Amino acid sequence: MSEPMSINVQPLGPGNAVILLDGRDVSAMVAGYSLTQDATSLAQLTITFGLLGVPTEFAGEARVRVRPEQAEVLIGLGWTPPDE
User: Fold this and answer.
1) Global confidence as pTM
2) Of 10, 25, 40, 60, which is the most exposed, with the fewest CB atoms less than 10 Å away?
3) CB 17 within 8 A of CB 30
4) What's the mean pLDDT when you consider all of the chain?
């Protein structure tokens, strides 16, 4: 399981949101995301990269999972993948 990281998700309007992962803006690459949380665990953010954003708002800590083929893009932006 990934280590928690700081995330901030803020909608700007239909199909447009700002998504920050540890302060890095990845919004332009995000086609969709899902944010889940229950009363007994940290939130979990799952990101799909592509052309469109999906508006949902969340600010706080979450476990972030990135598909291996998409991690390369984030690494290129300076992101360090968490230890599994």
Assistant:
1) 0.55
2) 40
3) yes
4) 79
* 3-class SS letters over the chain: CCCCEEEEEEEEECCEEEEEECCEECHHHEEEEEEECCCCCCEEEEEEECCCCCCCCEEEEEEEECCHHHHHHHHHCCCCCCCC
Token look-up 């291996």 returns 68
Cα 43 to Cα 17, 34, 40: the distances in Å are: 18, 10, 10
Residue 47 near residue 33, CB atoms below 8 Å? yes
Question: By the 8 A CB rule, do 63 and 1 touch?
Answer: yes
